[in-house]
Prior knowledge:
By secondary structure, chain A is mainly alpha-helical.
Amino acid sequence: xxxxxxxxxxxxxxxxxxxxxxxxxxxxxxxxxxxxxxxxxxxxxxxxxxxxxxxxxxxxxxxxxxxxxxxxxxxxxxxxxxxxxxxxxxxxxxxxxxxxxxxxxxxxxxxxxxxxxxxxxxxxxxxxxxxxxxxxxxxxxxxxxxxxxxxxxxxxxxxxxxxxxxxxxxxxxxxxxxxxxxxxxxxxxxxxxxxxxxxxxxxxxxxxxxxxxx
Amino acid sequence: xxxxxxxxxxxxxxxxxxxxxxxxxxxxxxxxxxxxxxxxxxxxxxxxxxxxxxxxxxxxxxxxxxxxxxxxxxxxxxxxxxxxxxxxxxxxxxxxxxxxxxxxxxxxxxxxxxxxxxxxxxxxxxxxxxxxxxxxxxxxxxxxxxxxxxxxxxxxxxxxxxxxxxxxxxxxxxxxxxxxxxxxxxxxxxxxxxxxxxxxxxxxxxxxxxxxxx
Lengths: 214, 214
């Protein structure tokens, strides 16, 4: 990337320039609106209001923008997985920590995670990202199995289905959540964990959850 | 879809093999693979192995196929909502019934519901479907609020967030579930309800009646 050239171009245009971070943010927004396949470098150039050559100062290709964006989401999730692995507590608690922190990552990096969740494997970059996503899913599935062996997860649900329902629940947040800052993100994460681990229904003393005290 | 319409289409078709139902099933599969916008009648004709004019025996346009497909999903969900409204039981139980039966509809009409969940409002037909989907979401949100007024839903979660998490959980099933017949569909619906309403975590004696004898 040629900083001197960029600075000259900026000076010439007389407008504030875009660093890689802002180019990436705009690219991801457009990819999410139109789909990656439906977006050209021309579209990005129009949206950014800069020449295509200015985008190529930052990246070699549209696919490199995709790759950077998907990594942004995946690196966040894997950093959670690493922190989970370092915790010395029962699997059920590590699983809850993983769910909670994954919701926080999703809320914090929403456009990037949205793009990841829509990736269908149409390019080598998408396929690589889907591989990493599967690795992450395995970590979740293994934790669920471990928690079930510990007797901490209800035995009437298949662990593989439980893992998928759990992460389906986390991922679906991307469909409706509008970021409202760090405290709102943590409130959301708590709500997801409360429903997933304790259930929505109020428990009454001495009765099981599904009998009603009427 | 109206049975009369189907019968007329069947009578009209000039060759064995494809009635409107099969054309629709193939169209929905292709829409889900490539996106509705990325699919032409030519693509459908190639996939079906019949001339475009044979598709036009059944429908007037690609958008009519989309409309029929989205109605297939929405009619299933609204039929559940009607059955729910007719039940004389506490809101929390009606809500659980709604979730359970929505999972069954989703599993049973998976490609149609998948198409609905991906609709982004790019056409008048999609916008109409999104309107109906919002009506359905309101029914869910109202039930959650009613259950909260009854004191049957944990008060520490915002009812609007609870409704969205709940239906996010249901909808996300479309991302991974592969239909395995009626009994597998009902098992899935039970797993979703167990997690959503009772929680994944085993309850031990003294915490609630759900406890496990360990």
